[in-house]
Amino acid sequence: MLRFDDRVAIITGAGHGLGRSHALLLAERGAKVVVNDLGGALDGTGASAGPAAEVVELITKNGGQAVANAGNVATPEGARALVQAAVDAFGKVDIVVNNAGILRDKSFGKMTVEEFDGVLAVHVRGSYLVSQAAYPLMKAAGYGRIVNTSSPAGLFGNFGQANYSTAKMGLVGLTKTLGIEGARNGIRANAIAPVAWTRMTESLLPAEFAAKFTPERVSALVAYLVHESCEVSGEVFTVGGGRVARVFVAEGPGWKTDDLTPEAIAGNWDAVMAEQPYVLTAADSMKAML
Ligand code: NAI
């Protein structure tokens, strides 16, 4: 059994849905958990200390250890205070699961700059800020596990979610670079792109998905990725309904010529679009170009 005794985990947005499930699972397996949640509505408006406190109460009732933090991860002060809460309560931070998220869906032509920025602030800036606040502690300890929460909507695009898709693909870039930079200090970073029945999706998914796409079926992957035995880093996985799959950024073999003109590209478009074999790293990509 993969356990987390003596590990300290920060889970953001853990008052509801997926984050709550991650927090309960890690606590049940021995982790000391900081349950963060701003407690607002799905669009990020409002705030309440209730949801984080309720999850802490449940963990404590079940014999686990947890403290609540109702701060906003999208602000530097909120992120700093969250990491400080972990240090004050438990003395360190081993695990950060960046899960907090909001939705402000709107078709592209109608999206306002506030709707765009507001969504990026929680998902991208929030994940950056909380990880960065914890980073010096992880570096000093030579150990850290970070999971960022992307989405199939970001990896593959989705109508009405230009802001959300941008944010969720941004997290892939953040994860990949963090995986590279963290390597020499024992810090591993990965991203998940989940599907689960939560307040975020209950009006979008068919009712029969509720029993199959449980948050617990996502948390199992999160727990594996943040365990000390997992050395995987810089990877992205879709997870939902009991299935886990690697998602990768790939590049086709490409087509080249010494005389690259717009017309030459148009005339060789099928070769440009060819898919096999895949190129998986920036170095392979550069090699192919060279
Ligand atoms: P949820 O709405 O139940 O949970 C999100 C939590 O984040 C809420 O409790 C909310 O209060 C909290 N939160 C929002 N802004 C915050 C902030 N600034 N600071 C601290 N906490 C904040 O939704 P769900 O489904 O559990 O989503 C969790 C994560 O998974 C999100 O990042 C979401 O985008 C992502 N996701 C979920 C999918 C699904 O199928 N449920 C699909 C793809 C991605």
Task: Provide key terms for this protein.
eight-stranded mixed sheet, 290 residues, oxidoreductase activity, 43% helix, 2 domains, globular, alpha/beta, Rossmann fold, EC 1.1.1.-, single chain, Peroxisomal_Beta-Oxidation, oxidoreductase, binds 1,4-dihydronicotinamide adenine dinucleotide, 11 helices, Sc_DH/Rdtase_CS
Structural class of the helix and strand makeup? alpha/beta
CATH topology of the largest domain: Rossmann fold
What assembly state would you assign to the polypeptide chains in this entry? single chain
Helical run tally: 11
CATH architecture of the largest domain: 3-Layer(aba) Sandwich
Order of helices and strands: EHEHEHEHEHHEHHEEHHH
Pfam families: adh_short
InterPro entries: KR_dom, NAD(P)-bd_dom_sf, Peroxisomal_Beta-Oxidation, Sc_DH/Rdtase_CS, SDR_fam
EC number: 1.1.1.-
Protein name: SDR family oxidoreductase
